Amino acid sequence: MNRVLVTGGAGFIGSAVCRYLVQEKQCDVLNVDKLTYAGVPASLKEIEDNDRYRFAKADVCDKEVIAELFAAFQPDAVMHLAAESHVDRSIDGPAAFMETNIMGTYTMLECAREYWNELSNDRKTAFRFHHISTDEVYGSLGAEGLFEETTPYDPRSPYSASKASSDHLVKAWFHTYGLPVVITNCSNNYGPYHFPEKLIPLVILNALDGKPLPIYGKGDNIRDWLYVEDHARALVTVVEKGTPGETYNVGGRNERTNLEVVETICSILDELRPLAGGNGGTSDVESGPSGQPHSTSHGSLPTSTKPISSYRDLICFVDDRPGHDARYAIDATRLENELGWKAQENFETGIKKTVQWYLDNDWWWKPLRASRYAGERLGRA
Ligand code: NAD
What we know:
The protein has twelve helices and 16 strands.
């Protein structure tokens, strides 16, 4: 696998994949990205001058342009990550999710199929179309059990429904046309270059600004967290070694409630960036009678200024996300046993690296907070 066409490579996971392919796997990469609000070319700074990396600004729904890119680049594999990815935004405006995630995947499949049909037999056999998907297609778990590759689909949000639709299209192109596809369904990622609308970077950056740390509902929803560079390694393992037509679940066996995640970030910040004098910070959050921040039934954030001694004092509970799935947890046995991948980071090591990265790299996130997303509440239906 020498030449890889990556879609969505200016996004959080796509940029980790591009960096890994160019720096560790010595692949030639063509990054095809529309540069929506979530596309950040600065995430590719480390490789932008590398001869093995090139970029095309294009929409995956634009069949003519995508077909030209296939013809010019002659990929050995496609790793299709381009998507609208934020559940809250899918509640506010589902149309872009249907367009990019469903029609964009359809367009990519058709362009790939037309290109693949013309390849020599050897290149045809070796070609892979890898669709990068989410565990959210499986719906919501109770207290027990794990998502397996055979778990029936049961998506609940416009985002997960659009990703489930695209997974079905990819499987149909395998069964109907024989296109050699692989699919991965991964749990929640975190790590460097994560757009500040998602829980972990939002909490780190709000904390550094002394702003409230909003937690949906009671903070008891559980996610299974995977460090993004472990995900990138998993994806490349699957595109290299996976069996066509198969699905592989990717997860780090790191289940945490949202409240645990936020409290862990606060503890790390208390250690790495202590508030002045142990109690010299101020917050926008009003303390409740027990020293706990007030919960705000309407999700509006309180505004009074009080001294705080720990970043935990910034925690505040807001209205839950509509249709908020209770628990996701992945069984990654198949990927581990059949293809030999294993996560290198656990949540404790990964989250510490992540907080440190945000402390060290304000050149990356400050312009995004200033111009694209400052932390306002999204997705309240
Ligand atoms: P992201 O939102 O950070 O990045 C998406 C990228 O796609 C951006 O660079 C954006 O500009 C680009 N894009 C959007 N619409 C496009 C279009 N029409 N044409 C071309 N480019 C377009 O997303 P992410 O978190 O990096 O997720 C990448 C993929 O992984 C998505 O398919 C997502 O569903 C999946 N996934 C994400 C997670 C997670 O925790 N973030 C977990 C599992 C799976």
